[in-house]
Amino acid sequence: MVIIAVEELKVSIGGRIVISEATFAIREPSLVVVIGPNGAGKTTLLKTLIGLIRPVRGCIRIFDSIVKPGSKYPKSVRKLIGYMPQRDVINYAAPLTAREIIVSGLIENISVPRILLPRDSNDMVLQIAQRLGIESILDKFFDELSGGQQQKVLLARALIKDPKILILDEPLSNVDEISRVEILELLRDLVRRDGKTVMLVTHDVEIAMNWSDYVLLVNNGRAVLYSSKMVEDVDKFLRHYPEKDRKIIPSRSPYCA
Ligand SMILES: Nc1ncnc2c1ncn2[C@@H]1O[C@H](COP(=O)(O)OP(=O)(O)O)[C@@H](O)[C@H]1O
Ligand SMILES: [Mg+2]
Q1: How far is the CA of 220 from the centre of ligand 1 (A)?
Q2: Which ligand is nearest to the CA of 35?
Q3: Is 90 exceeded by the pLDDT of residue 237?
Q4: Do the beta carbons of residue 210 and residue 193 sit within 8 Å?
């Protein structure tokens, strides 16, 4: 079963090629750590996967749906994915409580006016908040929360639709060590117990080494997937930015045929 596959994907921003060739496939529920230097195109790749950016070439497959450059990104696919943007790009125009932010995950736009938020969602919010251990902060304003609490709220927001896939852009930045482990344990549980697939960006090589099933390395316009089991020392591995011939996932696959 294909969960997420991309084939010969090319993505440009403002006429500049950011991703020149990405090919990989995730076939079973996995925790995938996306790693690579600043400006390498990690965020661009994630946004392309969820349909916020249109690719120039290649294709994306999410389960049985195929997205190609000319085709519209299906709403049915978007529903399968919970997305958490990079914290530093989130800017709430009006002060919102943790609860309001979590509920806003049920609608597409992150900065909707309070009046538009669904009313009858308290049970859902409470259930997710309990799993994340944030029940006591639901009525606090987002700005009052610590970095770790803010990231947990945003994670709860990404989870509220009970998506099959979670795409998380730097969910562990600005998070203290204890919350970091709590979040990673939850994510691992979501993969192992709930059968979800999690893709998360981090700069932390230790996390890639200790928590991932796969490492998706984004560098020099390419995105290459490696099985973590086959990488003994991710740090050394990343410093040498491995060559094409060490790639273990075949580059040509009929995922989008
Ligand atoms: N909205 C944008 N307008 C112009 N350039 C952008 C925009 N977003 C990203 N870029 C450029 O695309 C490249 C990849 O950015 P990004 O995907 O954010 O990298 P990463 O997340 O790996 O740090 C960078 O060179 C960045 O400057
Ligand atoms: Mg980024």
Answers
A1: 13
A2: 1
A3: no
A4: no
